[in-house]
Amino acid sequence: MPGLMRNTTMLTTDAIGASDVPHRTMIARRQLLRFFAGSPLLTAGSLGTIASLLTANPQQALAQSYDVLRGSRRTLGSDGIITSAADALDVFEFEPAAKKAAFSQEAPAHWGYLQSGVDGDVTRDANHTAYAKYNIRVRRLIDARKVDTSVKIFGETWASPIFLCPVSSLGAYDPEAGVTVARATAKRDHQMILSTVDNASIVDVNKAHGRPAWFMLYPTDDWNVTKALVQRAEGAGSPAVVLTVDRQGGRNTETLFRERRLDQRDCTGCHTPGFTNEVSRKANFADIDVSKVTNLYGTGMTWEFVDRLRSIVKGKLVLKGIMTGEDAKEALRHGVDGLIVSNHGGRAEESGQATIGVLTEVVDGVGGRIPVLIDGGVRRGTEVLKALALGATAVGIGRPYVWGLASFGEAGVDRVLQILDDEFITIMRQVGAVNTSQITRNCVTSA
Ligand SMILES: Cc1cc2nc3c(=O)[nH]c(=O)nc-3n(C[C@H](O)[C@H](O)[C@H](O)COP(=O)(O)O)c2cc1C
Questions:
Q1: CA 180 to CA 8: how far, in whole Å?
Q2: Residue-wise pLDDT tens digits, 110-139
Q3: Active-site annotation, residues
Q4: Is 398 a pocket residue for ligand 1 (Cβ < 6 Å)?
Q5: DSSP H or E run through 313
Q6: Residue ranges of domains in the chain, CATH in brackets
Q7: d(CA 32, CA 81)
Q8: Mutate to test the pocket of ligand 1, among 121, 168, 349 (most ligand atoms within 8 A of CB)
Q9: Is the CB–ligand 1 distance for residue 347 below 6 Å?
Q10: 428-445 pLDDT, tens per residue?
């Protein structure tokens, strides 16, 4: 499956964000000193004082709107779409850029695959719009210039609470698939979860990521394959296996099917008929005998399967796709180590139920005994803060980083993370939280 063509403009210093503190501080200092150096009121002595003030409080000079006004003017392409990752103002600007990349590759079906929810995409959209049901309670007169965005999960520290969700078949959007994503996330020290059915293997992704990613498991209906997948991931050092439990019923990905109508390619060139062919293209199944596998998702899994898996997973076992307090409590009884509140980005069922709307139910269900993560519809740093305030330990993004990947490769993923990190830092400061443990339910209120 060929990767999409994309714009390849490299990141410039204009793209440096608050999370690149040392680099950005240097640029902010340089810009401010240049500004003051032009002032007739300044002597060499006072210039030295300003420089020392900036050194003492480097973050004071960050994220001011006039920094942007002093930079070079950035324009869009004639179609109104960004032409470089550095130019994106928010993650939404990557969406049309990714669509353009897909269509320039004559791959509308790949675009449809990424965007699709199920049925009328109501749940996909609700995941995002439901964040507007919560407002942020800001606090004043707290010095929050220096903030620590890190979170600790299973003894690991991540620099940011934003993690990258497992997305299958990233090879449709980048030739190196998960490996490219791993390089970008490693740079910013975010954690990522690799899908069983990515085009890159967990072994290669873990190498590129520097420290091992979590491995998301579609178990298949052959236990020997399940075991082999777990062994491969754990052998590559992955500290957590994430069992996705929300794809048991089949699905109507209508948006994909609609875009497929526009696709002139012969899709069977890659998507050869038969399950064996479909998975044997995927790197994580290399050298595993998949001849007895008939299904990847709808395997009729029950809690007994979770017990069986628990007995072979040596590291942490996480369930992805939990949406109720009842299932959260059941997971505790079965020795699960963590949960991800998720409806597969609205790609599992058309429930209309947004993940953020059920987060407290799940968090209260486990009563603080295991970490609860969440994904679905997160597009702003403010939404990351809302999710943490409502009890999430970390917050996943799916489509936004793939928009970045499809349009600008590694630089696109990097910029998506940078934007979200910067937005998150800004809102942390405004609520007066200097670290993530200070983000509590007190930080949000119903709209
Ligand atoms: C194209 C695509 C493929 C996905 N593949 C998987 C997968 O293989 N395994 C899985 O557990 N979730 C998968 N998901 C769901 C994501 O892990 C995540 O739950 C979802 O994308 C979060 O919502 P968001 O896209 O609105 O951020 C996929 C999502 C998309 C968009």
A1: 14
A2: 999 999 999 999 999 999 999 999 999 999
A3: 344
A4: yes
A5: none
A6: 112-446 (3.20.20.70)
A7: 31
A8: 168
A9: yes
A10: 999 999 999 999 999 999
